Amino acid sequence: MRTKTVKRRASGIQRRREKLWQLRLYVAGQTPKSLAAFSNLKRICETHLNGCYSIEVVDLIDQPELSRGDQILAIPTLVRKLPQPVRKIIGDLSDTERVLVGLDLRPAN
Amino acid sequence: MKNNLQRPTRSAVCLPKCPTGIHGLDEITNGGLPRGRPTLVCGGAGCGKTLMAMEFLVRGAVQFGEPGVFMSFEETGGELKSNVASLGFDLAGLVRRRKIVLDYVYIERSEIQETGEYDLEGLFVRLNHAIDSIGAKRVVLDTLEALFAGLPNEAILRAELRRLFRWLKEKGVTAVITAERGREQLTRHGLEEYVSDCVILLDHRVHDQIATRHLRVVKYRGSLHGTNEFPFLIGEDGLSVLPITSLGLNHKVSGERVSTGIPRLDAMLGGRGFFRGSSVLLTGTPGTGKTSVAAHFAQAAAQRGDRVLFFSFEESPNQIVRNMRSIGLRLELPVERGLLRFHSARPTLCGLEMHLATMFREIATFKPAVVIVDPITSLLVAGTDSETKGMVTRLIDFLKGERVTSFFTSLTHGGHALQQSEIAMSSLMDSWLLLQDFEGNGERNRVLYVLKARGMAHSNQVREFLISNRGIDLVDAYIGPSGVLTGASRVAQAAREKAEALAGQQDASRRKRELERKRSTLEQQIAGLRSEYECEELELRRLDNQAGARTQVLTAERSELSRLRHADGIRAWAGKPGKTQTKDQR
User: Fold this and answer.
1) In chain B, what residues touch A65 (CB-CB under 8 Å)?
2) Overall average pLDDT of the B242-257 stretch
């Protein structure tokens, strides 16, 4: 099964960066972890990115060859393609603080 | 009881094996790695884990038609290709022909942020995809421990690894997993917990500045395997574990004899030389001509049409050929004909096992009938005494198994005490020749003994060993009341004896002449006496005849007288006194 959701909101109230946030979420089938990750991601993006982002969900069951490109081992993995540098966040994204650190939205302390 | 004994054998046969194609490893493991199960290869840095795994894969693809997946966590595909290209593996070509898939897994902890529950399904998907894309039968994971460095949550990782190995088994692929050696356990992260079917330990030890690699099958569930530590080396054509499985004494023997190339030496060895496939040790002090004997043996073998492999640890091939030309041996001819091959190396070049492995490989490729090692003692510097003995044992067993006649020279230092050190080695040998120096009368001479020659009548005599520009010759040493004489003193002794013999001969003929003269004198005397006697006899006979005639005449006269006197003849004749009376009266 393949889920592809692209969301774009051009007019954010608090635009953090001028650039577009390009995110890719790798899952393998609709496992509870994958579903949790997706909903967590959406929630975080809504809250912190406020619009200017895109999420691509890649299901490796359907496209196993894509796992090589982003060096995916763990599922689920969120890859921040843009802005550079590439960051990887693994897990179901339930720890919001760490997701924000991982996405570079908050400095690690 | 009987069943119990039979069961392991049967299971060893039944357990399907996956041949690695690596020299020697299949012998040690009785046929290869367990098919369809994961095998753990562990060892320290630089042990050859990656190479072994890669060779398993490449040989699988090339020799056994089993495609493979190499999942690397450390080196990129390009790096791997260039690394193994030096070993003659055309990895790029195999990848192009879809025999092998190289998958480089990059994992960097600093780029990863962990945010909750996860699993390694991505790795599974990726591996699964790679396996299915070429129908792989073999998988290598090199090395999974990079995951421990890259992923923070060890609990999840361990659970996932357990799942991974189970999954690999279900998938039915034969997997090789490499892991770094740990301090107290086999692997740094205890991977042996998960991979329990077969564990191979690689080791790289340095002893006296010489490094040697070792391989040991720690565990092989459900199969017989060699448990010893086996040396192995990484050579020009990959890995080879030393084929030392046949340490039994069950090689076939030959009754055929081969000449030593020195006729008198053949004569000392029951007239026909060594047995084919036997081992010969030649010990001697420096400069006694060991290499020359070896060269004679080599030349004789080449003349028979046998292939000869000459391992030299002291001289270069050209030097040997040049030096042997001075004693009338033209070794370049068999070299040109491809019957004689030299292999020269300094003993310190590498460890003992490396030498042994190189020799095994040379022997396996050249397939000689005669192998000469000159001198075996040079290898002592590359290992300890026991190691050398072990190595020589293996070498001899290997050569005997191949029915190769082996000739080892051994350098001893002067004196009898040091000859003892050879005893350990000599017990392995079938024949033992000893070359010795004799010093005296301002010169130095060589003598040769046959100390032992199993299975043949051999001379117990010492022979003087001469090297001339026509080669080696053995002559009888002079053995007399003053001991063994060699060289000039032997020649002097021979001259003295000749002179004595001549003098004796002359003396005898003189005495004979004298006797002859005496005899002729005596004979002359005898002849003189005889003629004298004959004269006397003649005279005597003449006198006798005269006397006879006179008697007759007297009788005739008397009878005439009596007739004339008319005497009574009868009376006169009958009565002698009368007659005498008459006579006297007259």
Assistant:
1) 129
2) 66
Instruction: Find the range with the poorest average confidence among A29-38, B228-237, B493-502.
Output: B228-237
Point out the residue among A33, A77, A98 whose CB comes nearest to the CB of B117.
A33
| Interchain contact B121–A (C-beta under 8 A) | yes
Q: Nearest CB to A28: which of B116, B117, B122?
A: B122
| pLDDT band at residue A65 using 50, 70 and 90 as cut-offs | confident
Residue B105 has pLDDT above 90, yes or no: no
Integer Cα distance of B448 and B452 in angstroms: 12
Question: Any chain B CB within 8 A of the CB of A76?
Answer: yes
Neighbours of B393 (CB within 10 A): 15
Preceding omega of B143 cis (within 30 degrees of 0):
yes
Q: Is A62 in the B-facing interface, judged by CB distances under 8 Å? A: no
A81–B contact, CB cutoff 8 A:
no
Distance between CA B556 and CA A92 in Å, rounded? 189
Q: Is A34 on the interface with B (CB under 8 A)?
A: no
Of A71, A85, A90, the CB nearest to B106: A71
Interchain contact B116–A (C-beta under 8 A): yes
Flag the least confident range among B415-419, B481-485, B542-546, B556-560. Answer: B415-419
Q: State how far residue A28 is from chain B, nearest Cα, in angstroms.
A: 7
pLDDT at B165 exceeding the cut of 80? yes
Q: What is the dihedral sign for C-alpha B388, B391, B395, B396?
A: positive
Closest CB to B115 among A68, A75, A93: A93
Phi and psi torsions of B303, nearest 5°:
-70, -30
Quick check: B129 contacting A, CB < 8 Å? yes
The answer, yes or no, to whether residue B568 has pLDDT greater than 70, is: no
Q: Where are the domains of chain A?
A: 21-102
Under a CB-based contact definition with an 8 Å cutoff, are residues B168 and B175 in contact? yes
> Number of Cβ pairs closer than 8 Å across A and B?
98
CATH for the A21-102 domain, from 3.40.30.10, 3.30.1250.10, 3.50.50.60, 3.40.50.300: 3.40.30.10
3-state DSSP call for residue B473? Answer: strand
Provide the percentage of residues in chain B whose pLDDT is more than 70. Answer: 88
Of B107, B128, B147, the CB nearest to A64: B128
A108 pLDDT band (50/70/90 cuts)? low
Give the list of residues 6+ apart from residue A69 with CB closer than 8 angstroms, or none: none
Among A17-21, A75-79, B376-380, name the one with the lowest average pLDDT. Answer: A17-21
Q: Tell me the backbone φ, ψ of residue B448, rounded to 5 degrees.
A: -125, 135
Could you tell me if B380 and B411 are in contact, meaning their C-beta atoms sit under 8 angstroms apart?
Answer: no
Q: Do B118 and A91 touch (CB under 8 A)?
A: yes
Full strand arrangement of the beta sheet holding B198-207: B100-104, B68-72, B138-142, B174-180, B38-43, B198-207, B210-220, B229-235, B238-241
Which DSSP symbol is given to B105?
Answer: P
Nearest to B371 by CA among B361, B380, B359: B359
Nearest CA in chain A to B122: A73
pLDDT digits (tens, 9 = 90+) for B120-149: 888 888 899 999 999 989 999 988 888 888
